[in-house]
Amino acid sequence: GVSALDNGLARTPPMGWLHWERFLCATDCGADPRRCVSEKLFVEMADMMVAEGWRDAGYEFVCIDDCWMAPTRDEHGRLQADPERFPSGIRKLADYVHSKGLKLGIYSDVGNKTCAGFPGSYNYYDLDAQTFASWGVDLLKFDGCNSDSLELLAEGYRRMSLALNKTGRSIVYSCEWPFYLRPVQQPNYTEIKQYCNHWRNFYDVYDSWSSIRSILDWTALHQDSIVKIAGPGGWNDPDMASVFVSLSQLVIGNFGLSWDQAVTQMAMWAIMAAPLFMSNDLRHIRPEAKWLLQNKEVIAINQDPLGKQGYRIAKDKNFELWERPLSGQAYAVAVLNKQEIGGPQNFTLSFTFLGNGLACNPACSVRQVLPASRDWGVYSWVSSLGVEVNPTGTVLLKV
User: Fold this and answer.
1) Is 143 a catalytic residue?
2) Which domain covers residue 282, as residue numbers?
């Protein structure tokens, strides 16, 4: 049979907006209609994505996370949206999102219940896939709560992959498979990539620096097993978490990160070739957060067609040096300062080390992308560049 790897989708990491981290499971629309998970929220976000340049910057998916469903299936066994919060139904919402040149993502779970306790897809994989396809859904985030065993979990992820393919509709398949395996066994990423377009490895991203830092630490620690598998059609999600299921969430534009930490998240998600799913309120976003999230040069690195994931190449005291091979023999280079106290620190970048010595041989041009763009000019293989990096900040270069 055809595996999801052959579905021709997600040739670059998917980009979009998703409700989870910011709006969670807000289902009481009487108390706070502007924050509740309802069709109105998704219509307003779709409108904002077009009006404020998000779609044109590359953010194309509007994703519904957990808590969209009615508490029970209908008389034919089909999933149904909560009729109070989604009175027009998901098909109408998908039509609206498509009319804006955007795509719709939806959420379900491999087990018998979702993480928030709504009906799961266990024993209904084919029916649910057909339902989503008939609604015009373009992406499925498939969570891993409430599965009775790892065997059933793995079988469920495989079966939903095949069921989505059978519908004949192009649906990006986002899995939480390795995240639920990891505590017990080393995931087989070769197999997972055969079935999924991206997969989550680590805990939910929270709106905090400690969360971002722990994801970077985890990724560096496991890079030998995860970097090589990433590529067109299949991506490592630093986080796509469901009681916080975020797709590789960018928590920029919320409350918990300083400016330097937001720059670090954006730079490092680009280096890691991570799916870029924002979870924020696009109706209220500061101009500098918008500038960062829509930065064309950073997005171009994230979306580079070569599709190779970056990795850490050096650690020196509080500094980390990461690189990502790009198309056209270029490299993205990140200098991360993990010190959380004091002032800006200087780091001397020696070009001899980049790209196994190939990046600057015999010379290279260097452009800084973040925290602000500037041209550093041309350097030879044996020269070095001193950069100043704020605590918890990152300088992102293109070489």
Assistant:
1) yes
2) 15-303
